Amino acid sequence: MRAKHSIKVTSPDVVSSTGSMIVISNRLPFVLQRKKDGSLVRKASAGGLVTAVAPVVINGNGFWVGWPGIHLDNPNEPIPESDPDDISPTTGLKSDKVIVVQIDPVIFDSYYNGCCNATFWPLFHSMPDRANFKREHWKNYVTANKEFAECTLRALRQLPRKNANEVPLIWVHDYHLMLAANWIRQFQLTWILTLVAFQYAEDEGIPCKLGFFLHIPFPPWDIFRLFPWSDEILQGMLACDMIGFHITDYCLNFVDCCQRNLGCRVDRKNLLVEHGGRTVRVRPLPIGIPFERFVELAEKAPKLLSTNQQIILGVDRLDYTKGLVHRLLAFEKLLEKFPEHLEKVSLLQISVPSRTDVKEYQELKEEMDQLVGRINGRFTTPNWSPIRYIYGSLSQNELAAFYRDAAVGLVTPLRDGMNLVAKEFVACQINIPPGVLIVSPFAGAGETMHEALICNPYEIDDASEIIHRALTMPEDERILRMNYLRRREKLNDVNYWTKSFLSAMGSLQTQDDHDEVGSILMPAVTLDDFDEYLAKYIGNSLKLALLLDYDGTLAPIAPHPDLAIIPAETKKVLERLSNLSDVYIAIVSGRNVENVGIEGITYAGNHGLEILHPDGTKFVHPMPTEFHNKVGELMRQLQETVCRDGAWVENKGALLTFHFRETPHHLRADLESQARKMIEDAGFIVGKAHCAIEAKPPVQWNKGRASIYILRTAFGVDWSERIRIIYVGDDATDEDAMLALKGMAATFRVTSSHIIKTSAERRLPSTDSVLTMLKWVERHLSRRKPSIDPNNYRRNSLAKSVTSAVQIEMSMQYFSESGRGRTYLKDAKQIALLLDYDGTLSPIVAHPDLATIPLETKALLEDLSAVPNIFLAIISGRNTDNVKQMVGIDNIVYAGNHGLEVIYPDGTKYVHQLPTEFSNQVKQLIANLEQSVVRDGAWIENKGASLTFHFRATPEEKRTEIENTARQIIEKAGFKVGNAHMALEARPKVEWNKGSVALLILDRHFGANKWKGNVKVIFAGDDTTDEDAMLALKGNAATFRIAPTVDVKTHAEKLLSSTQAVVTVLKLVKKLAKK
């Protein structure tokens, strides 16, 4: 659509930058064409961008980086100088100031046509249904952006060295290069570090400023997030120091996406985004046109419209975003509703061919051709055709003539970044009386050109009425509106836009002559920053679990792990928090288990493979035995092969870490690659860390699994309903925890400036901001009213509370040197352990099949079963075969169905006699339940001697109704109803229960009543069915009820808070039994 002939700018407004400028754009400011003799020739572009920016590049001795428009077979083929007769703005841009980007044609086609045009163009114009999301195109987009970035670094290295105040400016343009700034920043850092490694002075590295301008709209968050790699795009743009958009709406969309997609801290008022410890400025910089040039064109252009009719003018690329079909339909509606315009008004629509090889554009052209033909066929008279349709390019002289003589300029895109046609139309309106401009509110021009008539192109009827209003507008109103428009566009021309950009970058030569736009720095993270996000989430009553990484989160990253010391202030805040009754703290680190000197908190090392609880108990995840020897062998191989140039191996016991932080930057890639291969060949999993790689054993365990284990251990199986969680980490290993806790925790990632995809909800710039967050937690919790909640649980406090005469004691205290448990077991010749399964040995889960016994618990039971003076029996509500299968230990007693069935180690069985009609009654009960209440997630478990009706998966609002109905059905069928965890049990009406079977088992093994007073019996269970055993054994056993709260009525002597507390009891029984 731009000019076939270039026009010289007669009186340019000179704009200068304080430092040299490097412009990076998809296309160079000219294209190369090959002549018949095989030589290359330049063909200049004459757009407003080139007109305004090229002189700044030339005057500052800068560079322009871009693709030349053709693929060169010889990458070293010299670029020709401009034609001596060329008077375009790029005349002074010498070939040695042009960096040509050479990309493989297949990759370039995928990058440009696949990703840029088929994905970003429709998506950013809020037409996601037209967008094509393909991973291959995205990969090639990344590749192309890296190539542009590398070429830009070549230009940066060639810049002349000036004084420190003349910092070069790199200006990246448009959606083709949204990742380039990230690579430029990374490559520049790599280059500087390499120079330092070779002992050059650090100031040999050239500092630079990075700016970006997007020439198309930036979509709202709900559309932008549809792009699968949206995080990477945002972070690529945020590598710049300043990002410019046409209008404030696009700025706000971008800022919103940074907050909602990336979790960045933002300042909407001043349009600032914090990313990786840097403040990125976001600025509305509406682009203008070379106003005076278009005035000159309009004054000189010959008259092309020899008619007395009023001309409505549309000038657009043939593109689906331009609303051309809607425009034709609106014009048709105008002729229908206002027949007075027949033979007096014509629509001149100029459609410039675009992407003619794309099927979608071919179909649009066909639709336009048919629509023009239909409307003309409907309304044409012998002397008049309503639509004149030009499919082709016109010179700027011709366009200026049409702009000047048109009565109405119709600029009605469905979505457009700015649309300079509206501005060009205004500049060329030099006639008296002038024409009228109609603008869509969905173009950037609609936000600033207030005196134009605003027309929603989607509303065909209203659009026709607005066109009618423009055609019939009084002359004085037309003059008034156009004068205001022309005055504004003359002032805010393309040179003003360039000045505004340079000013916002702090690079304008005459900075005092131009206003600075808004604040340029985000304030440091304050306590108040966390109010909006955390205050409502944490609330004023629930307990809080803080799960924190160490290196890079609590302690700054250091050259050597031994130097990564937690700051004194951070440590003091953690100590104070650890003494608050409503706070639980766990440090989850990649280090081996280390105590940072704070009592009463949990330490998880080796990414959770080892966990040290506050009470001294320790969890160690099992590791394949063959890997114990492999760790040592791998360490030896690494030390012999890659431990050089500052690289070294850290042995953490369960895993190894190969560090190369102190290795010269240019040697790192090779060492890392060698180490990675050795680790993989040894059968270990490779994990990425800060300037390090980790060799992990191949076990399904990570920080996510460890975090859930810690929470379940501390707060019980239903922890997610009773606590609030904050997780903070800084590297890839923490992503496992953030993903596992997604939706159940407030998660933070401490990030650098590089592109990092994270599952965290928010980002923090540094360890200092983590400290601020911890201070906020302390402040927030200190404002709570003192809690008198008897459920207030703290694993590390060992506090006593008395409720209904039941004393809650942690198991260690009960079995301590002065505890009654130790006295009870003192000099015990025989010990009998009778244990429930679900909720006692295994945590309660959503489905019985998922209630697997933890490895640590099973190993402990196996050890106990092997002690000669310990007798072990499992008494469960499951059927006997199932509970035996779940536990998997052969030499112990299993009682199922609440004692109706017992199987002994020698294979003999006891089966309690049931009524003869019981089998038919069970079948009928199942049928009745299935017909009435087996819905909404509820289901029946048939255990043979009993049934269990489960409704844990039923929506909460339906549970009461389903439970009551099921209870009535069970009772009506003649069964006993038993309450369980989110379940009802249907048991036969026989006088037999867990208490009866407990006595039976003890009598059979030790002799009738002989065990009383001679055998130390311990019983542990977690629900109402276990109360029968606790009552039957009262006075002859130590009984424990597992309950997360104290408001439970029980016959047990002691309450335990979780299945992990049961483990603690069993460990101490084992310890005391050996004595």
TrEMBL record:
Signal peptide: none annotated. InterPro entries: Glyco_trans_20, HAD-like_sf, HAD-SF_hydro_IIB, HAD_sf, Trehalose_PPase. GO terms for molecular function: alpha,alpha-trehalose-phosphate synthase (UDP-forming) activity; trehalose-phosphatase activity. CDD domains: GT20_TPS, HAD_TPP. GO terms for cellular component: cytosol. GO terms for biological process: trehalose biosynthetic process. It holds the Pfam family Glyco_transf_20. It comes from the Eukaryota. In the N-terminal section; belongs to the glycosyltransferase 20 family. In the C-terminal section; belongs to the trehalose phosphatase family. This is Uncharacterized protein.
